[in-house]
Amino acid sequence: EKHRASAQVHSLDVEISFFEIYLEDIYDLLLSEDKYGQSVHDKFEHACRSKLGGREERHMNALRRYSCESLDEALEYLETGLTRRRYAKMPLNPVSSRSHAVFSIRLNTVRADMTTTSVVLHFADLMGSEALALGFADVRETASVNADLLSLSRVIESLGPMGGHPSYRDCTLSWVLREVLGGNARTVVLCTCSPSELQYYPTRNTLQFGERCSGVIKHLKGDVQKLGFSELRAIIQGLQKQLLDRNVSNVELDQHRAETEAMREQLVASERELVRARELLAAREVARATTTKALTLTLTLTLALTPTLTLTPVSYTHLTLPTKRIV
Asked: Which residues are bridge partners to 107 per DSSP?
């Protein structure tokens, strides 16, 4: 009630479920009265239980959850399920349970910021192993419960220090308790023992089972953060802004790529012109060298074929030209 009255809590729902596992089948213990006998005495003996579907897949989607508003109502559900559970009269226990029972309380909380959390509390009462040599038990029940406990022990051993792959699907019990054993949960195991010497071997087996349970190594995951509408809206806006910035960046990148491509084309054209200029210059240099070589060869041949010339000095006489008077 205090949790519901908190200003940070928008709504709080408590759901109850109670079922038993008998011969690998799941039975809802909180069905309506028309599924069971009307009298308190024949609710167990004449119970017309409805087996839940989906046994092959080992799921409990068909299991109903009943809304609970108070502690008294939850206790009433528990008492109703206990009266409908399978029992049998045994030499040492006149009310011996013949099935595994699981009583679950689910708490769904919606906070003011619309964040939701769900917590489940399971109470599992397991049927103890039996020996067929006693001759009092039903063969099917004894074989089924011993197989269930053996499969559960194997799963627990695989979750211990030795490691291995837990085979949850080997039996319905281990599949139902998979989140309790290897999931993100805290588990408490209570073992009931007898101080009688006649129950030495059952007590020893029970203590060994408890010791194996204490060796389970939990791999807890971090709390999954569930965001409200305002936080989700802020995240969406941030992602939209990042997408817009990325689009703008892509446009700028495309422009930069276009400019780079144009500059690269200009550079290639310049390199081509430079190569052409170099080729032209080289051709001119070759032509000049060829011409020079040809002139040198011509001059050499001319000098070789022409006789030696004697240069006679010439004396120059000063001539006096007559002058004519111009009138």
From this structure: 14, 119
Summarised one tens digit per residue, pLDDT across range 287-320 is: 888 888 888 888 888 887 775 544 455 454 444 5
Long-range CB contacts (within 8 A, 24+) of 55-59: 55/24, 55/25, 55/26, 55/172, 58/169, 58/172, 58/175, 58/176
Using DSSP bridges, classify how beta strands 9-22 and 100-111 pair: parallel, antiparallel or unpaired: antiparallel
d(CA 163, CA 157): 7
**Contact assessment for residue 213 and residue 189, using Cβ atoms and an 8 Å cutoff:** yes
Q: Is 48 within 8 Å of 13 (Cβ atoms)?
A: no
CA geometry: angle at 132 spanning 131 and 135, to 5°? Answer: 115
Closest by alpha carbon to 264, among 274, 253, 256? 256
CB 174 within 8 A of CB 151: yes
68 DSSP β-pair partners: 14
Asked whether 18 and 81 are in contact (CB, 8 A), the reply is: yes
CB 36 within 8 A of CB 48: yes
Q: Which amino acid is at 110?
A: V
Nearest to 149 by CA among 96, 85, 100, 200: 100
**Chain-wide mean pLDDT for the chain?**
77
Mean pLDDT, rounded, for 246-269: 79
Helix boundaries (H) for the chain: 2-5, 42-45, 71-84, 139-158, 172-176, 178-182, 200-214, 229-305
Alpha-carbon distance of 16 to 28, in angstroms, equals 11
DSSP per position, 202-266? HHHHHHHHHHHHHTPPP-PPPPPP---HHHHHHHHHHHHHHHHHHHHHHHHHHHHHHHHHHHHHH
